[in-house]
Design a protein that fits this description.
The structure holds 2 protein chains of 2 kinds. Chain A has one domain: MetI-like fold. Helices cover 79% and strands 0% of the residues of chain A. Chain A is built from 11 helices and no strands. The radius of gyration of chain A is 20 Å and the shape is globular. Chain B has a 6-stranded mixed sheet with strand order 7-8-9-3-10-11, with helices on both faces. Chain B has a 5-stranded antiparallel sheet with strand order 2-1-4-5-6, covered by helices on one side. Chain B folds into 2 domains: 140 residues, 3-Layer(aba) Sandwich (Rossmann fold), CATH 3.40.50.300; 71 residues, no CATH class. Helices cover 32% and strands 26% of the residues of chain B. Chain B contains 6 helices and 11 strands. Chain B is globular and about 45 Å long. The chains are: A mainly alpha, B alpha/beta.
C-alpha cells in the first residue's frame, strides 16, 4: 500500500515544482510582457482543462511512445524511455496541473495595480527586480493557491497517467490507478484505505489553504513579513 | 539645459497631446482639468509612456529624442516620481519603501558608500518626521504620513528631476496647511527642478516659479 502513496507524492512534488516555475513564468510573460502570439499560447496552456484526460494521454502516448517523434528521438540518442515509466507519470501530471497554476497566477498578477510596477521602475529597478520584489510578493496568495490546486490535481491524475505510465506495481502505480485496480480485483480493503488516505490528504491541504487565505485577507492584503 | 526641456507629441483617445516648454530652475506648475493630458505628460517625462514624437532633456542630458532614436528607460532616468495615490508598496514597511530606490544604486554594493546612503536615508526620514514609522506598513499609517513617506521615497535617491502628480489632493484642509509649510522648506533644501500637477490655484501661487495651463493637450 505504501508504494503507490510514495510514488504519487514523488510525481506530484516534481510535477508541481515544474508547474510552479513554468506557470508563473508563462503568466508573467503573457500578461505583463509583449510576447508574440499571446492568445494562441494562452489557449494552448489552458487546453488541458477542457480536454478529457484520455485525449491528453493519447496525444502524449503518440508523442512520447517508442515511435513518437519525441519518444523515438530520446530512445535513439539518449536511450531514455518515457512511456511506462514514472517520468511519463510526471509529464502527464505536469500537463494537467499547469493550467491551474497558470490561471491562478494570471488572476493574481492582473489584480495588482500597475502603479506599483511603475513606481519600482522610476526608482531604478530592472524588470527582473520589479518581478522579484513587487509582482511576486504581491501575487503570492494566488501563487500559493495555484500551487496547492496543482499539487492536488497532480496527486489525483488518473486518465492520462494510466495511458502514459500504465499501472506497473512498485514502478508506475499511483494512488488513483491502485484504487481502480483494487476495485476491479474486488480488494475493497485496499481501495478503502487508499481512498481514505487520498481524501484526508486533499481535505487537510484545502482546509489549510483556506485558513491561510482567510488570515491573509484579515490582515489587510499585501504580504507582511 | 540644466532645468527641463520637453517637446511631446502623443495621440491620445480624444485629442493629440502637443506641448513644448522649458525652464532653467525652480518649480513648474501644470494646471488643467481632468483628462487634459497632465499625467500622460508626466509619464512621458518619466519614461513610463513613450511619446509618438518629440524630445525630452534635463540636467544636460537627453533622455528622449524621436529623431535621434534615443529613449532612455524609466529606471535609468534618475527621476523622483510622486504618484497621485502615493503608490507605496503595501508589502513593505515604511523604511523598506524608502530604501527601495537606494538599493538599486550601483554604489549600494560598496560597503563604505552603502553606509553613506543609509545615513542619508536616516537624515531624510528625520527631515520628513517619519523616523518613528520605520517598521510600520502603509495600511497602518495616516494619509499625511503616507504622503511624507512617498515624498521621502522620491527624494532619497537624489533625483535629477522631481515629478509630483497632485501630491496634496488626498489631504484634508488642516493637514494641507502643515504640509504646505513643510513642502516649502523641502523645496528650499533640496532645490531639485520640479514639475507639479495640481488643480488648486492656491498651490500654484504658493509653489510655482513657472506655470502652464493645459487644455485638450495644448498649452493655453
Amino acid at each position: 500500500m505504501l508504494s503507490p502513496i510514495l510514488l504519487s507524492l514523488k510525481i506530484a512534488i516534481i510535477a508541481t515544482s515544474i508547474s510552479f516555475v513554468a506557470g508563473t513564468l508563462f503568466a508573467y510573460l503573457i500578461n505583463k510582457k509583449n510576447v508574440p502570439c499571446k492568445d494562441l499560447l494562452e489557449s494552448l496552456l489552458t487546453l488541458p482543462i477542457v480536454l478529457p484526460p484520455s485525449v491528453i494521454g493519447y496525444v502524449l502516448l503518440a508523442a512520447l511512445g517508442k515511435r513518437g517523434f519525441i519518444g523515438a528521438f530520446l530512445l535513439e540518442h539518449f536511450g531514455i524511455q518515457i512511456v511506462f515509466t514514472w517520468i511519463g507519470g510526471v509529464i502527464a501530471a505536469c500537463i494537467v496541473s499547469l493550467p491551474l497554476m497558470y490561471q491562478n497566477v494570471k488572476a493574481a498578477l492582473i489584480s495588482i495595480d500597475p502603479i506599483y510596477e511603475k513606481a519600482a521602475r522610476t526608482l531604478g529597478s530592472s524588470e527582473w527586480r520589479v518581478f522579484r520584489t513587487v509582482l511576486f510578493p504581491l501575487a503570492w496568495p494566488g501563487i500559493i493557491s495555484g500551487t496547492a490546486l496543482s499539487f492536488a490535481r497532480a496527486m489525483g491524475e488518473f486518465g492520462a497517467t494510466m495511458m502514459v505510465a500504465g499501472n506497473i506495481p512498485n514502478k508506475t502505480q499511483t494512488i488513483p490507478t491502485a484504487i481502480y485496480f483494487a476495485v476491479e480485483a474486488g480488494d475493497k480493503q485496499l481501495a478503502n484505505a487508499l481512498v481514505l488516505v487520498m481524501t484526508v490528504f486533499s481535505f487537510v491541504m484545502i482546509f489549510a489553504l483556506n485558513l491561510w487565505l482567510k488570515k491573509k485577507s484579515c490582515t489587510g492584503g499585501g504580504v507582511e513579513k | 539645459m540644466s532645468g527641463l526641456y520637453f517637446h511631446i507629441m502623443k495621440e491620445l483617445d480624444h485629442f493629440i497631446l502637443d506641448v513644448e516648454y522649458s525652464f532653467d530652475k525652480g518649480l513648474l506648475v501644470i494646471e488643467g482639468e481632468s483628462g487634459a493630458g497632465k499625467t500622460t505628460l508626466l509619464n512621458c517625462i518619466a519614461g513610463l509612456t513613450s511619446p509618438d514624437e518629440g524630445s525630452i532633456a534635463y540636467e544636460n542630458s537627453v533622455v528622449y529624442d524621436s529623431a535621434r532614436k534615443i529613449n532612455i528607460p524609466a529606471r535609468d532616468r534618475r527621476i523622483g516620481y510622486f504618484f497621485q495615490n502615493y503608490a507605496l508598496f503595501p508589502h513593505m514597511t515604511v523604511v523598506e519603501n524608502i530604501c527601495y530606490g537606494i538599493k538599486n544604486k550601483p554604489e549600494y554594493k560598496e560597503s563604505q558608500k552603502r553606509e553613506e546612503l543609509v545615513a542619508y536615508t536616516e537624515y531624510v526620514m528625520q527631515m520628513f518626521g517619519i523616523h518613528h514609522l520605520k517598521g510600520k506598513y502603509p495600511n497602518s499609517i495616516s494619509g499625511g504620513e503616507k504622503q511624507r513617506t512617498a515624498f521621502a521615497r522620491a527624494i532619497v535617491t537624489k533625483p535629477k528631476l522631481l515629478l509630483l502628480d497632485e501630491p496634496f489632493s488626498a489631504l484634508d484642509d488642516n493637514t494641507k496647511k502643515a504640509v504646505y509649510r513643510e513642502f516649502l522648506q523641502i523645496k528650499e533644501v533640496f532645490r531639485i527642478p520640479t514639475v507639479l500637477i495640481t488643480h488648486n490655484p492656491q498651490e500654484s501661487n504658493l509653489f510655482g516659479d513657472h506655470k502652464i495651463v493645459l487644455k485638450h493637450g495644448r498649452i493655453l
